[in-house]
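Appendix B. Chain record.
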Amino acid sequence: MLTSLAWHSLKSRKQSVILTFFALFISLSVLLTVEHIRVQAKDSFARTINGVDLIVGAPSGQLNLLLYSVFRMGSPVNEIKYQSFIQLKQDPQVSWAIPIALGDSHKGYRVLGTNQDYFEYYKYGDQQNLAFLTGQKFNGIFETVLGYEVAKKLNYQIGDKIIIAHGVAATGFNQHALSPFVVTGILAPTGTPVDKTLHVTLAGIEAAHLPQPHLKKLLANESKINPDRIHPDSITAIMLGLKSKFSTFTVQRQLNQYPDDRLMAILPGVAMTQLWQLTGTLENLLRLISLLVLIASLIGLSTMLLASMQQRKHEINVLRILGAGPGVIFSLILAEAILLMLGSALAAIGFISLNLIVLSGWLSTEFGLFISANLFTVTTIKALGLTVIATILTALLPAIEAYRSALQCGIHSNN
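Structure tokens predicted for this chain:
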């Protein structure tokens, strides 16, 4: 009864109600989008790399190790022995090990030396394996697999030859021109740093840095040489997958006390969480802005209801004559405000969900954001609950005004 009355009352003031509806719709869309993407982006960020139990590198701080091994940002302070990788790979507690060698680049994109296990065990997102858009894994010494963005931006195709340079500058002066790498594969887009990486063999990284006489001799006999026999003396990091998750902390402690090399092992998930916390100020700023937009809209709602009080005196008189008490009039104003807010919220949820369904592929490919179109999460429900409370508080002033007007109408009718 009260809901029906509130609905018809809103319909009688279409113009002002529609404007208020759109103001609430926009503010709720901003608020819910920020809250939903904030939570989903955090999960997506944590899923930049998946399935790796430990990352091992030289002692330099876990954020630094995470940045250069996963995000290809910065440079390692020290390296670790290649022999440490061999020993870890043979450890009975280790299921697989991926070596990583950094230090070279191509036109501003990082070159990563590794082996074929990288394409088998490296995962991202929801345990997704790396897939090839075209081509295949490298086999020979001087072969490379390109990330999606590298191939797209530099317009490379299968069979093209690439010259890498020492260092990570956009323009490399110390180029390894004698040993160009042939493109054998291009990876499908992942929305992760993999897209911005050139993947080459460890043998290729080592061979490219050989003195010219040795390099020319190797090139002349390349087809006869087993790539596994050529490897660097040191590498940048190692990604480990363990046979049992329960042994993670035990293995981490053992590696941090490794007797044959200076090693540091980190848990990627823990390091990711610490890195995300550095963005906390920006995150809170976005939430504050969306909250201020909502408050402005709620003030507009209150203003609209107050402005209509003078015009609704006749309506209140009729309701009083029909037997509605001041409490009913008070509840009617609150019901109108809640109804308007809920309608705006449903419209905002539908609008955001539709956009996320349409843009989900683009967001995951371009930005690595794996965002669900389902907005009915704990975070969203909490935000809506707080919005309802804020709406009721905002509508109290016009509701009290309506209550007083109803009392006055009752007094005049009694007189």
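Further analysis of this model is presented in Appendix C.
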